[in-house]
Amino acid sequence: MTTLEEGTARYGTGPMRILVACDHGAFELKQQVVSYLQQRGHEVIDLGTNGTQSVDYPDFAGKLCRALLAGTGERGVLMCGTGIGISIAANRFPGIRAALCHDELTARLSRLHNDANVLVMGGRTTGPATADAILAAWLKTPFEGGRHQRRLASLEQQHQKEPA
Questions:
Q1: pLDDT tens-digit series, residues 93-109
Q2: Which helix (H) or strand (E) holds 121?
């Protein structure tokens, strides 16, 4: 497992390797997200699903989180119908800070205050223009550190002590 300092995603320094995964409820949104990221020069690793046939969101959350923690990518984007289930599943992994964002403000603050390394959106709740705005804000916002660093470090320590 990476420490908070090691896992802190970089920002504003050029293209990143970004992992993307979803369940069937967000397949269309995932296609848009992949296109958005690629058009801006990011390397996208698409971990599925690859259609609208019913699948289980915990499987895709786990796949992305394990890959992110292994260093396969710098950040991740997860999606399901509402974003709720897949964010709950992702946050079960120590070292993952998945933030369900509904607008630019929540996306910006998820990075600024929480150093979110996984962005979560809902395929049935997030429109195309809103998704683009969320991605733009999330990708360009740095982690502020300071008091937020102390809080996240404390959270990581607590998480490591408790059984999974």
A1: 999 999 999 999 999 99
A2: strand 118-122
